[in-house]
Amino acid sequence: MHTSMGFDRGWSMWILAVSLFFLCLILPKQAAVAAVSAPASASTVQSEHVILFVLEGFGQDSLKGGTMPTLSRLVKEGAVTWSATAVKPALRLPTMASLVTGMPVEKHGITWNTFEFSRGYPRAPSVFDYLDLSGGRDSAIFLMDESLYQLARPEPYTDYQMCGPLKPECSTERIVSYIRQYFKKATSGHGYGHAILSLPHFLVVHLPEAGRVGASKGWASKKYREALRTVDKAMHSVLDIYHEHALTKRTTVFVTSLSVEGRDANQEQADAAIPMVPWIASGVGIKPGYSIHQPVSILDTGATVMRTLGLQTHTEWESHAVEEIFQAAFAAAPRGSSE
Question: Any idea what the CATH number is for the domain that residue 143 is in?
Fold first, then answer.
């Protein structure tokens, strides 16, 4: 009896092996590729690149009517709060300063809204400094307002490009073309300019067109809705660049705004209330279709970006990672993984 069972088992294994051999010959190559490229479990995926889109004049109502399909998809597939705390004064430069330094206005000290050369760069460390210090990560920052020159402190681990309204040729499409050129040069093997020699780990893209058009042409105007579409198209184009470089499965996207629909980032609001802005995270490592419950401040953006890349500051900072949005517990990035 035992001999018969062993023979039957051996015969069955031989048939299975032959069947698998012929199955491998018949199956198309795409099926094998799909099997190999199946996504890893949430606990093992480590984001290597982060994109931060910084909008203006954008709020939850901006998505109505299918105006912003790309951003709507990021919201659907990611985590979102529509009531992240911003800062006072609710102006472009002070708000952006708080976003990159992780500090309230009273600590970073920038209360004005135009570039003033005599004041110099902020002394407070920024998320760009912490990314380099904690993990050797590089940043590329594309800005669309000359006032933000105030924040563009030159460092070997940052590249800044400006395309502001003082240049007649500047447009949302132009800033996207700058990013495309940057990536082309960064992947050429010769680096880009004097700083980053490869693709940046952290890309910041300032897209203020909707806010400018809403403030000048009216928030209920057709031109405002068109500007929202232009901004959404620009975001889609940037994401396409990452797709072309096979980075999508290693990239996390954040979106916030320096002002909401109906608010001009050039004008301080009369009421004393602290403004609320959208704050969205989507992509690798982020819970899909998730509404954030904990209080969020735009100050928290920097620490959350670092957490996404598996880094910590090991210093006291008023920026705190929004832990609730992540699929898995924190895992430190392997040493030497900054390439």
Answer: 3.40.720.10
